[in-house]
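Sample pair:
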Amino acid sequence: MKVAWLMPNLHITGGARVAVELSDRMVERGHDFSLLIPTGRYRLPYKLSAKVIECGKPVKNPLIAVLSGMTSMMQKVPEVDVIIGCMPPYALLAGKIARKRGIPAVNYVLNDDVHFFDDKSFIRSELLLKAYRSIARRAIKSVTVFVNSHWTAVRCVSEGGGRPFAIVPHGFNPDVFFPVKDGKSRTGMSDLPGIKNSVRLITVGRHIRWKGFNDLVDALNLIDRNKYSFELIVVSQDELDISKADFNITLNKPDNDRELADLYRSGEIFIHSSWFEGFGMPPLEAQACGLAVISTDCGGIREFLRDKENALIVSPREPRTLAWAIMKLICDVGYRNKIADRGLEDSVEFTWDKVADRFEDALERLKG
């Protein structure tokens, strides 16, 4: 099968990671995949198996870049059996090209596309937001939809879209994300010089408001460090404002997945604080590395997290509730290890190879 996948970028973030992981595995299975992006938007630190086609002139502004390569993209899409669009403008473009060629098109929806920018971290103009929401609603109504979770499916239907054709979740690479193998015990004792009985907390920080990093800072500020000793390790590619934190924070910018996995394995508890999330790869990757996970009830995480079984789940945007969950897992080592062990067992259902099986099946059914 030949497939073209239209993307806004190939950066290290979630949406691009999904396209890369699935495309590479499909190429391994004998399919022909091409990833089309605006010129200059390729920043992944490794070479892909799928073909990468850059379109248009390079533009620095990310929002303008989304639109700048679309005319060139129409001309550069090769002869394929299916066209996939990720992000509403590209989904509509995929549909337009597909109709002209008489082939199927897919809008692979990875989050609440209609309300994705409502927190105004990127788009601050209400006029532009209304225009974007209109485009997003049109995309989920006019193009065949794949989604990454049941939550995303419900969001699409609630905004006027039909029932999605397939649910294709996200995954992790078990060759990279795996637990500590040297028998290290999880007792809450830190190996950091000068820190005793301190639990290392891990999170992924973004400057986007709905990712909830400020809520986590507020929660940790509420905790009495004399009773609950911790250090926070923040994984981020963004420049974060940590001035409000009254506790130790270490910022890390891993260059690749192996460095990211090493950071996960250095901790005991992973905290995910988003307001909403189509799936949520970081908590899944952390589970696969053997960490106990605390997450907000942000939507797509319900595909793989179950409260009080393999994670603690709390309401979004409630720092006090989040602080309670953190204190619970800091002080109760046995419960923390039980949660972590169950999460590790459950995570194996979401390897990229298993996800690729579902993706391949959905494409074959769509092609007919």
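The chain has a mean pLDDT of 92.
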